Amino acid sequence: MKTVIISGGTDGMGRETALRRLDRGDDVIVIGSNEAKGRALVDQVSNPNLRFLRADLSSVAEVERVVREVSDRHESVDALALFANRLNRRRVETADGLEATFALYYLSRYLLSHRLRPLLDASANPVIISVAGVGLTAGRIHWEDPQLTGKYGQVRAQLQAGRANDLLGVAFAEQCGGRARYVMYHPGFTRSGLDNAENPVTRGALKLLGRFFARPVAESVRPVVEWIDRPPAAPLTAVDRGRPVDPALRTLDSADAKRLAKYTETLV
Fold this sequence. Notes:
Blueprint: E1 3-7, H1 12-23, E2 27-32, H2 35-45, E3 50-54, H3 60-73, E4 79-82, H4 100-115, H5 117-121, E5 127-131, H6 154-176, E6 181-186, H7 200-213, H8 217-229, E7 236-240, E8 243-244, H9 254-267
Parallel strand pairs: 1-2, 1-4, 2-3, 4-5, 5-6, 6-7
Antiparallel strand pairs: 7-8
Helix pairs in contact: 1-8, 3-4, 4-6, 6-9
């Protein structure tokens, strides 16, 4: 039995990963913001190895609470699978004064990776898997205005947070040491989370595209499920739709990774 934590685990790929790991007998902790979805999952599965933690991971205090609850109940964590993300048509500011996409999609992953590191180091073969868009080169970190106070756009925010997650993996592997292997994974367009768009028009368009072009969720999560059993040997692995990502890609720049880590430390 492994102890597996999944952020964004009540929908799509996160939910499918939870179900597949429960099938293998793991102890699975699913984190999600929607109480109804979390309870529905627990009731449907009816498995004592599944635990749902309701939390708004865009809040620093909520992430810290989750870490405390996990630490109180577990001596080690074998796998941390990071899926949580949400589309926001308009700029939303969290209670911490942060742009919500940045806070949820990137900062929660930073905090969970770093705060749970002692429990990961206590595992024999731990792995962190961040599901985002590694390998894509669109978008950048807006160093002059990372919280997008001057110019916000839904795509702009998503791309910036995606590139921030690329740099998070680089920085974690280079600076944090420890036992955990860090895997960055871009599954490609998947029939996952298509109901999360705030705009009904956007949601409808995504569903239509998903019907014809998206990969099935079960197919996209297959590598994630297997990495939990057999983490790669390298400190950092990046895979874009089944292909290794060139570590020399500009979006994986070590200097930018250090710069972002320093900026993030000032926030938390």
